[in-house]
Amino acid sequence: AEVFQEISAADFFYRNRDIAGFTSPSRAVYSTIRELVENSLDACETMGVPPDIYLRLSHESGPVDGPGVYSVRVEDNGLGIPGKIIPSAFGQVLYGSKYKLRQTRGQFGLGGKMALLYGQVTTHSEAQIVSSTGPKDRVTEVILRIDIQQNKPIIMKNKTHPNKHHWRGTAIEFKTEADYSRAMSKILDYMKQTAIIVPYANITFVDPRGRLYRFLRGTTTVPEAPTETSPHPHGVDVETVQRLLKVTNAKTLQEFLRKHFQRIGDATARKFLQYASMGQRKTPRNMTPDDVVKLVNAMKNYEDFLAPDSSCLSPLGEDLLATGIKKELGITDDDIAQGHAYVGTLQRKPATYAGFPFIVEVGLASSKNIPTEGKILLFRFANKIPLLFDEASDVSWKVVNNTIDWRNYKVAPGETPLAVFVHLCSTKVPYKTVGKEFIADRPDVEHEIVNAIREAGRTLKLYLSKKEHLATERKR
Amino acid sequence: AEVFQEISAADFFYRNRDIAGFTSPSRAVYSTIRELVENSLDACETMGVPPDIYLRLSHESGPVDGPGVYSVRVEDNGLGIPGKIIPSAFGQVLYGSKYKLRQTRGQFGLGGKMALLYGQVTTHSEAQIVSSTGPKDRVTEVILRIDIQQNKPIIMKNKTHPNKHHWRGTAIEFKTEADYSRAMSKILDYMKQTAIIVPYANITFVDPRGRLYRFLRGTTTVPEAPTETSPHPHGVDVETVQRLLKVTNAKTLQEFLRKHFQRIGDATARKFLQYASMGQRKTPRNMTPDDVVKLVNAMKNYEDFLAPDSSCLSPLGEDLLATGIKKELGITDDDIAQGHAYVGTLQRKPATYAGFPFIVEVGLASSKNIPTEGKILLFRFANKIPLLFDEASDVSWKVVNNTIDWRNYKVAPGETPLAVFVHLCSTKVPYKTVGKEFIADRPDVEHEIVNAIREAGRTLKLYLSKKEHLATERKR
Ligand SMILES: Nc1ncnc2c1ncn2[C@@H]1O[C@H](COP(=O)(O)OP(=O)(O)OP(=O)(O)O)[C@@H](O)[C@H]1O
Ligand SMILES: Nc1ncnc2c1ncn2[C@@H]1O[C@H](COP(=O)(O)OP(=O)(O)OP(=O)(O)O)[C@@H](O)[C@H]1O
Ligand SMILES: [Mg+2]
Ligand SMILES: [Mg+2]
């Protein structure tokens, strides 16, 4: 006879931690660092402050050249976490503040817990979290482990201290099994690429060999924090609408639509309800399940809603992206002026997939510095996170290597030195896995990336044609 | 101020259903069918009975050429589900009977629920499940929906009936939004490839256009059902060992090791405990967390454990794989005898990754029937499931297209007609996503696939050399 069992969400992600990017001691230390840094960046951007992030990885025991025990410490000047919330924020899987329709790096309520969980199951380490939400708040210190089978924190210490230094931010420390020597180059790439896509952040990294890496901000201007948005009628289903109907205090269907969805004003609501032939007597209170199905189908098919509002998004911008690209590739403005190198960036108009707004920004760069090695160098970003693994599974890779006909732009792929930068920002990034390493090839997203690269390619073509022309001139 | 929220596992997979393969009405109907069929196949193989599976997809409303409402019905002659269990098995995410170390198609406790959930959120459908565990059991009928926010079933009907026909099995029916015209060819490929890898199953499929497809069994011999196995010491971590220590009734550490792990006999236990320098006074009762960490590290590093036991696995076998390949590619034994086509299969010795045993079986086929279109045709299987999506992200694709130097085997990739079949079976398939569509490139797994193809390649080479030789002869 079969034996049946239920498992908690923590147990599920413990058993399947490879799906979240925690496969081996080298991959796990990379994932640990990126999950913690992304939490800190989110926490700072939400406040609109330039992030100051300090990260230290120290070797505790075991081989230095292979898996050993390391301690990880990260500190930020972000908005902090209320003392009562800390145990759940770090001890309960599927708990967090990023379950909204808002452009944040976090979206699963899982990353921080995975880092702690991996440390705990490899070294039995507990985690110490210290945080304060500002000068008016005391400093809370929590030491906890995760009860994986129950998916709840095991609190070993929970006390507050006076906030003598008027501090605001969060500091986290725990031990974990790591293989730094194998992960080092990816970790440093992650830092460097974060510096490109978050040019207003200071990141300090002290590595296990005692080396100090400083990634200094190139600007103190922090862009507008992304804002939360309502669902768009094209992104709904029966469950979403039923949940809204349950909690709404709207008296009429018109009011319900205006209040809970974006881009529905009075006139639109009225016209739409006519189109949907929802009777005059229907109210949020008396909607039957069949009414809801009818309403949802009408919402999905009605073509006269305005496109999703993208003002909630916070892209990087063409200038900042160009600055970051030049920095990463070691291209000076002089190189460009003298025609030895090219950097071109562009930001597309907002687009949508499945009712979610998104913006694609691309950069193309050509310079002798760029190693060709038979391929086009691809840098991928989503919601200002660098994506460094599983390149060949990403929609951008597919576009760059299978869709774009580079000869149209005077590029011989693998011979002409070329680097392509793609940044996608959205209220929901269509990652293919919870490990946040590559983006699914959803048609709307794929088309937008194709069009962005084609548009950017035309300016690249001018540069390469001119270069080719000058070279032929010189020959004569 | 940030608003914090916890969500249930059902809510998590509802919000991220694309990660589970439920992206669009066409992809979702494929995923729905494969999740249900795989549950039925598991249920039959566990009993050792040749599966008889009936699947019907009928169009209910909406466009026939585009997303519409369909009803899905699947019936099997498997082991059935106990009446009291049905609500949780189909109404609670992260609940199931496949959380063991055993080769089954299911491994997440999620698939059946995702199919029902997608139907529910697109059409508000309830699901009817009817099951009996055999002639001595009554027939239980349950009608339910899933309370997504609470992750529990909402039972709308739950009654038993006398089992007049002495039936054993399960029947499930519900409605869902589907786009059959776009999914049809993938669904039929899935059926055909299931017929290859499960040659002892009968599958009947009635499609929305009323067409009947019958995939008849080629053999009535059902292989030994896969068995459950204990963890191998190389696959442990602190959490696993702590859980075992909590529940064990072993009085000594030696007994604990022998009882709860595979491949540890009396002598091995003693030698290992000496190697680990676990003091004589240590018992399962008085192990401290530091002792557990020490024990786990020793277990991972001790080299004298026997390799994981693979007798629990149930591969297809070289003969059955060859039969299935010939059927799929329309190659007759006559074609092969006359040298017009080649089919070669081989089963590798068991291997392991991260303490999990696995077996790789490969087949290579060359015949004029095989379309070349500039690439090598690749068929992928895992635990007797055909994998039809995300080919380019799969470890087998990487091996076939990037690692193997086909010229060593007289193959000009894309010109020489070639089909490669790869089947991996394991107590835990290293899928990269919960959608079970592609396998991660874990080094041990990748090496094994490379070696399998190289080994099979040598026999292919003989055939292609001979063919080339005869062709040159004919020219003179
Ligand atoms: N450094 C930090 N500063 C402020 N809040 C934080 C910090 N780290 C974590 N949090 C809070 O804890 C919550 C849980 O973090 P966690 O990384 O587990 O999930 P997430 O960031 O919401 O989603 P994801 O799994 O995609 O990372 C966050 O939503 C955030 O509210
Ligand atoms: N047709 C069936 N016959 C017998 N038992 C079934 C059947 N379908 C589902 N079950 C039972 O219900 C449980 C839950 O099924 P579900 O598909 O949700 O998860 P799973 O098969 O365990 O894992 P996965 O998510 O990988 O498919 C199964 O473990 C099995 O015990
Ligand atoms: Mg996070
Ligand atoms: Mg299943």
Please provide a written account of the structure:
2 copies of one chain form a homodimer. Chain A has helices spanning 9-15, 25-47, 86-91, 111-123, 180-197, 238-247, 253-260, 266-275, 289-301, 318-329, 333-337, 395-403, 443-475; strands at residues 5-6, 52-61, 68-76, 95-96, 127-133, 139-147, 152-161, 168-178, 202-206, 212-215, 341-347, 351-353, 356-367, 377-382, 385-387, 419-426. Chain A has 13 helices and 16 strands. Chain A has an 8-stranded mixed beta sheet with strand order 7-6-5-8-3-2-9-10. The model of chain A has no long low-confidence stretch (mean pLDDT 96). In chain A, helix 2 (25-47) runs antiparallel to helix 4, helix 2 (25-47) packs parallel to helix 5 (180-197) and helix 7 (253-260) crosses helix 8. Chain A has 476 residues and is α+β, with helices and mostly antiparallel strands. Chains A and B meet through strand 1, helix 1, strand 4, helix 4 and helix 6 of A and strand 1, helix 1, strand 4, helix 4 and helix 6 of B.
Beta strand count of chain A: 16
Distinct ligands, ions and cofactors found in the model: adenosine-5'-triphosphate, magnesium ion
Q: What is the approximate shape of chain A?
A: globular
Span of the ends, CA to CA of chain A:
86 Å
Mean pLDDT over the full residue set of chain A? 96
Percent range of helical residues of chain A: 25-40%
Order of helices and strands of chain A: EHHEEHEHEEEEHEEHHHHHHEEEEEHEH
Read across the widest sheet of chain A, the strand sequence of neighbours is 7-6-5-8-3-2-9-10
Which oligomeric form is depicted?
homodimer
Greatest interface and its participating residue counts? A-B, 57 and 57 residues
> Poorly predicted ranges of chain A (pLDDT <50, ≥5 residues)?
none
> What percentage of amino acids of chain A are in beta strands?
15-25%
Q: Structural class given helices, strands, pairing of chain A?
A: alpha+beta
State the major sheet of chain A: 8 strands, mixed
Radius of gyration of chain A: 25 Å
Specify the number of helices of chain A.
13
